[in-house]
Automatic annotation (TrEMBL):
InterPro entries referenced in this protein's UniProt entry, alphabetically: SBP (IPR006059)
UniProt protein name: Extracellular solute-binding protein
Superkingdom of origin: Bacteria
Transferase in keyword set: no
Alphabetical keyword list: Signal, Transport
Keyword Repeat appears in the UniProt entry: no
Family membership noted in the UniProt record: Belongs to the bacterial solute-binding protein 1 family.
Database matches in PROSITE patterns: PROKAR_LIPOPROTEIN (PS51257)
Pfam family, one: SBP_bac_1
The species this protein was found in: Microtetraspora malaysiensis
Length: 431
């Protein structure tokens, strides 16, 4: 699902190292492997960390394997039960419930779980906890904020970014016209469509799920779909400018980069794409909290994470060695300036690390106000629900939300249909 940030980070992902032969222990050596979707530069950094770890932990060898994002989940599923299968994997958190169900995401040992609880934001720990146990380190966190073009705001006489939905509508109207749209939305990509909209829902006091029960026809949720319809009808949002292509770039990005979109809700990972595409004009990009709806009390952006898990089907010696390596990777001694090795790798891609220590280390070193705006909002973030059937549910919501944007359904009809489909999907997934 989230080919998203990977493509934006510029990773033309190919297999970077050969798969190691034979798992388990031989001649006193425990061999483990780390499956990732990262590109060559990040693989090299992981290999360097593995080499340093091996020097301090004789008897454990670490092999880094990289595959294209599209093959990541299938590789873990097809090879997971094999003795030579991946011991550690980097995964999108929406996959976690199914991997736990299938025994491919082992519970954290008690000592690792204690370090997680002490060193990571509570909302991120909650997001990786399934069946009463944390299942891995939420290394990367992505969340949403309102991105806006400060130059266009000044030209339109708008003094500051909107704090409420009413202010959002008013600002969008002033920014529209002459081929420009005031507020951009994203289509043709599930997370790009659903996450920004759900950030508005959350900021109106609504929610996507109450436990496992969809709340798509709740008035607080419906109101965000009605807001989209109003923006389209008024001309402040132009559907033809919304498309995302397979690489998660495309018109929606181009229109913001080229000053044709005044505002858009997007995640922090696209910083590198903005820098590359905008050049000196990147300094015109502002970051602000999600505007609060009439029934909301505070900004509450959607967040999601990528986490590293240990394969529950690996034998115990390899699981123990894997948790030891992950403990090393996430420890401040493995990186630079108080950061962990993982924190340094993520920051090299313009992506937020998630541990408290890494956030502190890189917030102090990074003077870019773009990332600073996201770091400030992290405590208010609401993790996207990670449940069995969650990906199919997200795709169903996307379909009906895009029908609203393109005028094929009224908000009321769209949310009613989405409610029924989401309920059916979650019921079947939990059966």
């Amino acid at each position: 699902m989230e080919s998203i940030r990977i493509a934006a980070a510029g990773a033309a992902l190919m297999v970077a190292v050969a798969a190691c032969g034979g798992g388990g222990s031989s001649s006193g050596n425990t061999k483990i492997s780390f499956l990732t979707h990262w590109g060559p530069e990040q693989v090299k950094a992981l290999e360097a960390a593995a080499t340093a770890f091996e020097k301090d932990n004789p008897g454990i060898s670490v092999d880094i394997r990289a595959v294209p994002f599209g093959n990541l989940l299938s590789t873990l599923r097809t090879q997971g039960a094999s003795p030579s299968g991946p011991t550690i994997a980097s995964i999108y958190d929406l996959w976690l419930p199914e991997l736990v169900r299938d025994g491919l995401a082992a519970p954290m040992p008690q000592d690792a779980a204690g370090k997680l609880t002490a060193g990571w934001p509570a909302n991120l720990v909650e997001g990786v906890t399934k069946q009463g146990s944390p299942r891995g380190y939420p290394n990367e966190v992505d969340l949403y904020a309102l991105n806006y073009n400060k130059k266009l705001f000044a030209q339109a006489g708008i003094a500051e970014p909107p704090k409420t939905w009413d202010e959002l509508e008013a600002a969008a109207a002033k920014l529209s016209g002459n081929g420009k749209q005031g507020f951009g939305v994203i289509t043709s990509w599930p997370a790009g469509s659903v996450h920004p909209w759900l950030s508005l829902v959350n900021s109106n006091g609504g929610q996507l799920l109450d436990g496992n029960t969809p709340k798509l026809d709740d008035p607080k949720t419906l109101a965000a779909a009605q807001l989209y319809a109003k923006l389209v009808i008024s001309g402040s949002t132009k559907p033809e400018m919304s498309n995302a292509n397979a690489n998660t770039t495309g018109p929606y990005l181009d229109n913001f980069v080229n000053g044709k979109t005044g505002m858009i809700i997007m995640a922090n990972w696209w910083q590198s794409a903005l820098k590359d595409a905008m050049g000196d004009k990147y300094q015109d990009v502002g970051v602000a909290p999600i505007p609060v709806g009439p029934q909301g009390s505070k900004s509450a952006p959607v967040s999601y994470s990528w986490l590293t898990i240990v394969n529950g089907k690996a034998d115990q010696p390899r699981q123990q060695a894997a948790w030891k390596f992950l403990d090393y990777l996430n420890g401040s001694a493995s990186g630079m300036g108080g950061s962990s090795a993982i924190g340094d790798i993520l920051s090299s891609m313009g992506i937020l690390p998630s541990s408290n220590a890494d956030l502190k280390a890189h917030a102090a070193a990074d003077s870019d106000p773009f990332l600073a705006g996201y770091i400030k909002e992290l405590p208010n973030a609401v993790p996207f629900p990670s449940v069995l059937g969650g990906e199919a549910m997200s795709q169903a919501v996307q379909k009906h939300l895009e029908s609203v944007v393109f005028g094929k359904e009224t908000p009321e009809a769209a949310m009613s249909a989405a409610q029924k489909e989401a309920s059916d999907i979650l019921t079947k997934a939990g059966a």
